[in-house]
Design a protein that fits this description.
Layout (H helix, E strand, L loop, with lengths): L2 H21 L10
């Protein structure tokens, strides 16, 4: 498990959150996964 992999995973997670927020805050419900 390298630092690069961790950064990629974090970036993907962030992108998902940002996309969800842009799509519609009312639709977005944070889930701990």
């Amino acid at each position: 498990f390298s630092t690069t992999q961790a950064l990629v995973m974090l970036a993907r997670k962030l992108a998902r959150v940002v996309f969800a927020l842009l799509k519609g805050q009312s639709e977005y419900q944070p889930k701990a996964s």
